[in-house]
Each structure stands twice: as structure tokens, then as C-alpha cells.
Amino acid sequence: MTHLVLDNITKRFGGLNAVSDLSFSTEKNKITALIGPNGAGKTTTFNLISGLLKPTYGKVSLEDQNLNELEPHQICKIGIGRSFQTPHIFPNLTTLENVMIGCQLQTNTGFLSCGLNISSARSDERKIIDNAYEELKFLNLEKYCHQMAGTLPLGQQRLLEIARALATKPKLLLLDEPAAGLTQSELNKLREHLIKIKDRNISILLVEHNMRFVFKTVEYIIVMNFGKKLAEGKPDDISKNENVIAAYLGQSPKVEYASA
Fold it and tell me: What is the pTM of this model?
């Protein structure tokens, strides 16, 4: 079942097309990778999906809902969570407090209610704490719940950011280089976590440069180069694609780019 759809997306910065006529879709409850050499346009594409950038033209939709006119917080609320290349955590808050920020999006309690300490706000706060702790526990981070987030090793910081994204109750999780800088042991645990997340009926689209991790983890791959779609298919097919191999080796592709 089609989930996320990009339809002829283009993003121009001045005279430069960072993304050009890009079209692809992802399947619901699947782990999909968006890969390509440095500068291929992958993170720009993520920014277009999550609303940090608006397309010059083209359309992004999730389950037939147009995302083009929505702000990032609105896109998050309807079901797209996200992590970044460098973990965007609050280092001077505890890990629990970091995840509570993600939970806050799913409550209806306003700032004034919290300030007045009314019963509904207290009830929401208890739910937020409980939900945040459950997400930490899901990723085996509960033992760090009272530790300052900035003191965590990189691997745990990456998982913490994923926990906060999960706290927003996403339908689709965007992960930007989640394996970067991780040890082999941490990579193995990350793979296990991604499979567990998929088992919660959450789709995953990840950008990643660790090809060994990608081919062992994902079910479908979209390849970009110079802002365009170069190829797409199952991991076995992509691993044998001469066009993809040439792009990663810095050679000219032997065939034309895949049609958008």
C-alpha cells in the first residue's frame, strides 16, 4: 500500500536545482532507504518531506494528504517524525525530558492550563511522563532517564532522538544517517530497533551512507545522484546496478537517469 508520495518534486536555490523532478513512493510498514553520493540531494529531500523547505514545484503527500502548505509542526502532528544527521537533542535536559517534548505534541493542554496547575493539565503531564518513559524503555534507554542528554555517548544520543520522534506517534519515521559513527555492536542494535519499530506499523525512510547496514536492513532502495532519481528497486537489484556502481565510483553512468 502506497504511503508517502513525491510527485515531480523540484527545489531550486537560485540557479541551482538541488532536487530535480524527483518522483518516488514508499510502501506502508516497510523500511526504505534513500541513498546516493554526497551532494545527491538526499537531505534536501528529507527537508522537503518534513516541511523545513517548500518545493519550487511538485507535490509531497502522505496517505493522499498534501503536505506542501503545512508547517513542520503540522506535518509532525499528522504523522511524520524525524531525526537529523547530527542529533538535535537538548543537552541540558534529561533523556526523559527530551522525549517528553515529543509527547507534548499529542496533548491538548495549553500553556495557561499548565501554569494554573489544573487537574486536566496534571493528568496530561502524568501521561506524558509515562509515555516518554515507555519510549525510552522500548529502545533500552530507560536506565539513562535521569541522565543529562548531553552526557550520553553518540549511539545513545541517536537512539534518544529516535525515541523523541516515536513519542510524536508517527506513521512515517525519517531517519537521516542513523548509523553514522556507530560501532558494529551499536549498528546491530540499531537494526534490531528499526525492525521493532516497523513491527509497530510505523514506516521508515532512512538516508544512510553505510551500505553494508543498508543492504542488511532495508526492503527497498531509491538511489539519487545530482538531485535526480538514478534507480530504485530491491537491495539485490540495486547492488548489481551498473549505473549505481558507477555513481558511487565517481564515473559517468552508462545509461540515462531513471524517469521521474
Answer: 0.87
Q: Which DSSP letter does residue 149 get?
A: G
Average pLDDT over all residues of the chain: 88
Over residues 33-53, the pLDDT tens digits come to: 999 998 899 999 999 999 999
Strand order in the sheet with 220-225: 80-82, 172-176, 203-207, 31-35, 220-225, 228-233
How far apart (Å, rounded) are the C-alpha atoms in residues 256 and 238?
A: 16
Do 115 and 128 have their domain in common? Answer: yes
Tell me the residue range of the domain where 29 lies: 1-79+171-260
Q: What residue ranges in the chain does DSSP mark as E strands?
A: 2-13, 16-27, 31-35, 57-62, 65-66, 80-82, 172-176, 203-207, 220-225, 228-233
Q: Which helix H or strand E contains 211, and what residues bound it?
A: helix 211-217
Q: What are phi and psi of 189, to 5 degrees?
A: -70, -40
